[in-house]
Structure of Iron-sulfur cluster transfer protein NUBPL:
Amino acid sequence: SSSSGDEALRDKRARILSRGLPKQKPIEGVKQVVVVASGKGGVGKSTTAVNIALALAANDSTKEVGLLDADVYGPSIPKMMNLKGSPELTPKNLMRPLKNYGIACMSMGFLIEETAPVVWRGLMVMSAVEKLLRQVDWGQLDYLVIDMPPGTGDVQLSVSQNIPIAGAVIVSTPQDVALLDARKGAEMFRKVHVPVLGLVQNMSVFQCPKCKHKTHIFGADGVRDLAETLGLDILGDIPLHISIRETCDSGQPVVISQPQSDAAKAYLKIAMEISRRLPVPPA
């Protein structure tokens, strides 16, 4: 009958598709992977990833946290985490992450000159990402935070399909053009069956340091509206504050250098929301 023929065709198609997908393999020693992503560049994703990693460690001193910079073309973790130099190799020929503020860090920025542009085609980028994922000795980590490149391209798909991800965090400003891309990012993770833990509204409001007047430079509550549309949670709001930019530029992120500030407290709250939403890790 035609229905049984259709079913056989569907089964065959499913078998072919499953053969084509890479098998997800956990990163040795890493209990849970959290990816921080954005559809658009320039929305403060790396700053958010750095401060989230530090906040996860600050919220629970028993947890070991790592930070992987998967943005091959524009690695910014070395500067933000005040790290320089090349990783040492273990006897098994694995790279040892560089460490600062208690966070184990790995980045393409450790492997190339600071001012050298990465002029690579897609296959070379994918090979580099594979090395950063598989050829690093992370030791034992409770959380590995991955700072993803902006967009929904090869790197995002490869990371999502190669390793089990406990959850994704989408960062966006409330601006309409950023929200369009943030939505695409959230939909992409849903398509590859990565749970989206929630959205972070970054640069949500600017408060004048002199008169204390608040201005919504990028619009108000756009990310909140998007979260509602997508049926997702808002993990928190980060203000547009000069100290956040200055501390990251100087390699002393605000969670570490100004832990009592409102900005640091916002990141600590977001980290708490993330850990609350993560599944119970394997023993």
Remarks:
- The first strand starts at residue 30 and ends at 37.
- The CA atoms of residues 32 and 243 lie 30 Å apart.
- Residues 28-277 form a domain with the Rossmann fold fold (CATH 3.40.50.300).
